[in-house]
Amino acid sequence: MNDIFFIAIAIVALLTLFAALRLAIGPTAPDRVVALDTINTLVVGAMILLAAYLGQTIFVDVAIVYALLSFLGTIAISKYIGGEL
Amino acid sequence: MGSDGALPLHEGGCLPVIRFLATAIAAFVAYLFLTAGSGTIILWSESELIIGCILSVIVGIASYRTFCRSGSVRMANPLRLILLPIYAIIPLFIEMARANIDVAIRVITGNVKPGIVRVDTGMKTELGMLILANSITLTPGTLSVDVDDTTRELYVHLINVPDELREKKVVDARELFSIFNIPGWIRRIAE
Amino acid sequence: MIGTAAMICLGIGLLFNILGVIGILRFPDVYTRLHAETKMTTFGTIFLSLGVILYAGGMLIQTDDTQYLTLAIHTTIAVIALAFTNATGSHAIARAAHKSGQRPDPSVVDRLAEVKGK
User: Fold this and answer.
1) Complex confidence, ipTM
2) Contact C96/A52, CB-based, under 8 Å?
């Protein structure tokens, strides 16, 4: 089971790189925010998998806080792009 | 979603004490979930319970104005609280799976016909609008873009606009979903 | 038995995550990319977490260690937080994109632009 978790973490990490590709080439600012949001979601998933892989529950707590904080970041950037800030 | 220009909703409502109690109890339940498995009193240790009580009182004082903003404690009704997870697990999840398979096929084939339509929700409360907008975003190839606070209409981006929806000025929310009556469920939960 | 179910969930989750990332690289404009992002990666991560929850449940039955109960409950909370914040966040991005003047590029109908009169 542990090997499978490791493979899953590796695949999710690779996907983060591909999402970062869109972050680099995205022609407009909203595209980049979309890519950033994707990376955030994938990192939360990877953290949950890491918690199971390493047997450290504290990683999931970090994932919860990361999800909420990345949400605040997304909202702040969106408000800035939309001209409300 | 700014609240200016929104319809007046149950202003006043109930006493601040009840709003404070509802907020504090919600905070305490969240704390209990986060610390489950820490000790021997059922699942919690003594110190966690005491700290949880103190913290939830502080959170309750600090945030009851925001948490119970409409001043109505409709959501404290246990039936609604039971219905909410049932809604999330059965109708929402099935619609979500269908939507995801649909979008997955579109990712592979690249066959999209996007467009923004105007949707009449028929919701009366802000909570209902919130749940409906989030459900629309998570479910059937749709994405809520903007909201009209005065008429409670949503502008929804569809990844594939069917021909019959293209001609209509205003679409009913029921027509976006196919299997379940999602707006009906939300009305039962939130109104 | 539970291990197999957890593996299947992990597989489904990885599949949807991969398709979501392909979607944000492949779709033509920001709104369709948001569709791929917000639905598919959320759904994929829900399934990944479901796999972890099943694994934790299996280990809880085997070893009777409350650490796995904590793992399962916290993962559930993380998933709820993720699903809720992702939906709201994508709504914010879509609204900001429309306000900043981006129109859905291939589009058959745009009622919002008609109303705003731009």
Assistant:
1) 0.86
2) no
